[in-house]
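Handoff note, outgoing to incoming analyst
You'll be picking up this chain. Sequence as last confirmed:
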Amino acid sequence: MTNTETNPKVESYLSKAKQWKEEFEKLREIALECDELTEEFKWMHPCYTLDGKNIVLMHGFKEYCALLFHKGALMQDPDGILIQQTENVRSARQIRFTNVQEIVEIKDTLKKYIDEAIKVEKAGLKVEPKKTSELEFPEELLTKFDELPELKTAFEELTPGRQRAYVLQISNAKQSKTRATRVEKYTPQILDGKGLND
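Most recent structure output, in case you need it:
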């Protein structure tokens, strides 16, 4: 039984889904039974919100589909089913599925987890971002700071979020050569006081 009003953009998305269609429809059915949530379409995916705040999003990958809880790191996880996508993801957590039967088997558990996510949001809880001082700076960036002290000064004047974005973007490169190339690429932006996406 659906309590929440459906969103036409989600209807369209599901009608065109080539992979995970049955799984998405089952996850949607469960989310719609939570009458406090609003069905929206964000980041090209069905998203369920509470008073404009993101609670849970459905998305699919090659190997699995998932429910993504935006503040999953703050939720109770008695069944140990919440997964951190990568080490750099601070807040969001996923519950992953590879077939519709897995969803059907834990339907009641999923409702409890969605309820828990709603409680976290209502309580106003927030995940504290990693402090810049806790980040591991790539050697290539530190070397550039030594070569160009004004770059270090400009970097330190950026907001913590902008600093974090640069450090993660540069660090994510596997090879030192690529990290060094990224440092060179972003140096003018940093000197101009701009963020990675400005």
